Amino acid sequence: MPLGIHPTFEPTTIASRRFSGMETAIWYFDVMACHAAQIAFTTLFSFGIFDKFPGLRVVVLESGGGWIGYWIDRMDAIYEVPLTRPPLRIRPAITFASCYISADPDERALGALIEFAGEDRFFWATDFPHQDHGAGYVDELKQMLAAMPETARPKVAGLNVAKAYNLG
């Protein structure tokens, strides 16, 4: 069973005050909710968790997928600097091969990202209906899949989920 990371919000008692006054802005939360998952994901690299548990599989849920290209590039760049290198034996881009990212159907750039990060790493978030997606959800999913290489479509549409969770 993989370790799943899902967005959440910090308790208001410890949350940053830089966004004071926006506590009730649902749009803000829908846009920014992914940051907690991104931080949790990064922490696994920061503490060398993948080296300590080489069989670990991680699934990042409901946080979008488009950010991961920048994230992996940035972590690899920092990994190359001895002064800031986390305790990792293997570059983050190589370690990413044991991770899965669920993407939303409105992520138009996912097709290009798959060419960078690999078609085996992504699947679409299937918790439909969901408050942050409108009535065009299924049409958006079809458009997202159409923009991908043909070999990636069945993987993103379901095969990668089966693989991530060992569903056979």
Report the structural category.
Answer: alpha/beta
Oligomer: single chain
User: Counting H and I runs of at least 4 residues, what is the number of helices?
Assistant: 8
Mean pLDDT: 84
Major sheet, described briefly?
Answer: 4 strands, parallel
> How would you describe the shape?
globular
- The radius of gyration computed from the alpha-carbon positions, rounded to a whole number of angstroms, is 17 Å
Spell the H/E element sequence.
EHHHEHHEHEHH
Give me the side-by-side strand order of the main sheet.
1-2-3-4
How helical, in percent, are the residues?
40-55%
| Low-pLDDT residue spans | none
Give the amount of beta strand, in percent. 5-15%
Distance between the termini: 13 Å
| Count of DSSP strands | 4
Overview of this protein structure:
It is a single chain. The protein is α/β, with parallel strands linked by helices and 168 residues long. The chain has helices spanning 26-32, 34-46, 49-52, 67-79, 92-95, 110-117, 137-146, 153-164, and strands at 3-5, 58-60, 99-103, 122-124. It has a four-stranded parallel beta sheet with strand order 1-2-3-4. The radius of gyration is 17 Å and the shape is globular. The model has no long low-confidence stretch (mean pLDDT 84).
